[in-house]
Amino acid sequence: MSAADSSEGGTPSDDSTLSESADRQPSGLESALTTGCLLILVLVADVAATFLVVIVLSVRALGRMDAGAGQRASNVLPPDWGPVVGFGALALVVGLTAVALVWVGHRVIGAVQLTLCVVLIVHALGFWP
Fold it and tell me: Taking the CB of residue 4, how many other CB atoms lie within 10 A of it?
């Protein structure tokens, strides 16, 4: 063998070590920990977004109550589409997150997100004028 032959391929043990480390899957504990942390992170983000929508809609409702205080009973306020749009947009974001999580392979977290999306859609339809 020449020096060029020995420098081309390296040693067979180096190649097998690389392929073994690439084929090694994370343990069940690491996978469960990653999934749990991802679930908590997504749920905290959803709760924060929900609180933001609730605060915005509450401020809108308070302003709407003040505007209607000086009107007579014969004047009817126009329908308020704010809650429908707010909760509908939140449901859309949660649904897209769920689809992305299922597509990546986190089926349990995606199922939780889809359940939350359905609850938000039902809640948004409850505000339909």
Answer: 7
Residue-wise pLDDT for 10-55, tens only, equals 555 555 555 555 555 667 788 888 878 887 888 788 888 888 888 9
3-state helix, strand, coil in the chain (%, to 5): 80, 0, 20
Q: Who's near 111: CB < 8 A, 6+ residues apart?
A: 98, 102
Mention every residue, 6+ apart, whose C-beta is less than 8 A from residue 99.
110
Total domains in the chain come to 1
Which domain range does residue 100 map to?
28-126
Q: Is 46 contained in some domain? A: yes
User: Please, are residues 64 and 80 in contact by the beta-carbon 8 Å criterion?
Assistant: yes
Separation CA 56–CA 59 (nearest Å):
5
In a domain, 67, yes or no: yes
Query: Do the domain assignments include residue 23?
Result: no
Q: Decide: 90 and 120 in contact? Cβ < 8 Å.
A: yes
Residue 121 pLDDT = 94
121 inside domain: yes
Joined together, the tokens standing for residue 88 give 């509908």
